[in-house]
Specification:
Number of helices: 2
Largest sheet: 4 strands, antiparallel
Order of helices and strands: HHEEEE
Structural class: alpha+beta
Strand order of the largest sheet: 1-2-3-4
Shape: globular
Distance between the termini: 56 Å
Number of strands: 4
Number of domains: 1
Strand content: 25-35%
Length: 92
């Protein structure tokens, strides 16, 4: 009976677990395209010359992407509506 209670407790805890805050949302492609466009315009290249990668999405729906044009790194923060809120140039 003790093993049964342990299994029930584990299932109950798993059911209560929240989805991770960094899970990508359904609008990630639009957010990524917005980041591409802003970085491309910023550096004077075509959007297909910019490579982006999703990093995380916060609980507020703001996604962070890393974008590269060649060896230069840019970070974009993009809201759920596809607006780029911030463009940074972090040091690597």
């Amino acid at each position: 009976m003790g093993a049964f209670r342990a299994i029930v407790a584990c299932v109950a805890l798993a059911a209560c677990a929240e989805a991770p805050a960094t899970a990508p949302g359904p609008d990630r492609a639009a957010q990524e395209a917005a980041c591409d466009a802003v970085v491309a315009a910023h550096v004077g290249l075509a959007p297909d010359a910019v490579a982006t990668a999703w990093r995380e999405t916060g609980t507020d729906g703001i996604a962070v992407f890393e974008a590269r044009d060649g060896s230069r790194l840019h970070l974009c923060e993009v809201d759920a509506a596809g607006r780029v809120l911030r463009l940074d140039h972090p040091r690597e």
